[in-house]
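Notebook entry, structure prediction.
Reason for the run: the old model in the group folder had no record of what sequence produced it. Starting over properly, with the input documented here first.
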Amino acid sequence: MVLKTLSLVPKTRKNMETKEIQKLLDFIAHSGLDEVSIETSELKISVKRYGGTVSAAPVAASMPVATAPALTPAAVQPVSPVASPITPPALPSNVITVRSPMIGTFYRSSGPESPLMVEIGDEIKPGKVLCIIEAMKLFNEIESEVSGKIIKILVENATPVEFDQPLFLVELV
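New structure, fully documented this time:
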């Protein structure tokens, strides 16, 4: 097992930003490292890779530390330099993809007993809440910016999502 210590966070900062955690996970996913530890005067975090997945777990901290979502094994597979780029199938011109504006956990309703916010076939308008993404214990409502009809939901409820990951396909009206 390879162990390296990195100092990505300045010692004057009191907490890690979401982007810094994502950079750390991306770094580990694309490197051959199995474990990385970060230590500041206020925070100590250790990130370890087990069985093809990457997860972050706080080791010790004087203040609350967010735990980054685990990446799927497909997300940590190195890309072969000779692999040809895979182009997704072209969507009709009247279909757009709603993408995640952040990393976090995707939820289709505001609670386990609450109704789903949108389903396939639902008409939506700008401002309509499509889903919730939980990031660092904050629940962010993701609103529609267009009018249209939901034709496909691309993410399962209560699963981790990455920044810019496709969430919904919407047919514009």
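Summary: The longest strand covers residues 53-61.
The old model has been moved to the deprecated folder.
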